[in-house]
Task: structure prediction
Amino acid sequence: MGTGNRTRLIAAVIAVWLPGECCFGFEDGDFQFWQTAVASLDLNQDWTMAVEEQLRFGNDAGHLYYHHTDLGFVYGGLADWIDLGFNFKEIFLEDIHGRWSRENRPHLNITFKGRLGTLDWTDGSRFEYRDRETEEDLWRYVNRLKVKLPWEFTRFKFRPYVADFVFINFEGRAFEQNRIFSGVSFELTRDMESELYYFWQ
Result:
């Protein structure tokens, strides 16, 4: 394992133990803690592999109710302004009665990226199949728009951004949810980036 790969692996392990993202469930006054760790590895000039782990704690951040693992491969060889991602996500979710269920979610991602003036932006389209254990299976489309502002602060390169995620079902009720994010990204090391944000759902 090369030095760069070893550094990425160590950074990913550390990230699992660092504080994740916090959010508030305003409908019931619940305080939640979401922790996400992502590790990526360049396989060659065109392909990147990434794995993401996320834990969600509810009931005033004291009870684990959600966990997912997302493994994906991204192809960037078509052009500088587009990436293709092929992923498989496995989700475990606890319902209000304390019963756990599993969902398998393969998804295809098409991400456009570029610069508008001094703003860096990405616009991703995700097509996912939700193979659910306790409910009917369905297809869903997610649009993910993210805009990074041009300013950077301090040696950690704090950089503000805004994002909007829209979830549309292909069956039943079409519009499912909308998440609006406002936050900052920053670099802890050369190989490790973190984010702190607020989101409204």
User: Anything to note?
Assistant: The longest helix spans residues 3-17. The domain at 3-200 is CATH 2.40.160 (Porin).
